[in-house]
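Training component of the fellowship. As part of building independent skills, the fellow (R.M.) carried out the full modelling exercise for a liganded target. The chosen ligand was heme C. The inputs are recorded below so that the supervisory panel can assess the work.
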Amino acid sequence: MYRKLCNTTGCCIKYLLIMLFICSCKGIIDLCSVEEISYKTHVQPLINGKCKSCHNNNFAYGNLNLEDYNVLKNPKVKKQIIEVIKLELGDPNLMPPNRPLDECQIQLLENWLTLGGAIDK
Ligand code: HEC
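Fellow's submitted model of the complex:
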């Protein structure tokens, strides 16, 4: 089987690329269809990918460290986050600046914050 698929170098590379593609697709989570929101599985990776570069333990714009989930429990912060992620493109307060989250990401983050922002163990 291996021999048949990989009888030429070009074919072999194609085969590897297809496998790589299939593997990478499996890692993508459709945030719109998440029923039970998990901090570790959904929220943290989203914050790490979209907010952490500017709001982290070492450096935090606006004095807001989103790496610390205790901060996310603060009702004022929750409200602020829900507001700034939903602003129009071009609004200077939009977060992340000029690179809005997609609808599913916004929905997930808002749902999680509105539901109390539970942290799974
Ligand atoms: C490219 C850097 C950058 C990224 C990425 C970023 N922010 Fe910000 N954030 C800022 C800056 C700059 C400010 C303004 C600080 C100030 O005015 O003092 C800010 C301020 C904020 C504030 C406070 C707003 C207010 O009214 O005081 C919130 C809430 C916030 N960001 C949430 C987020 C969230 C949630 C994400 C990810 C979805 C995010 N930010 C991603 C740079 C960033």
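The panel noted the following from the submitted structure. The radius of gyration is 19 Å. The chain has five helices and no strands.
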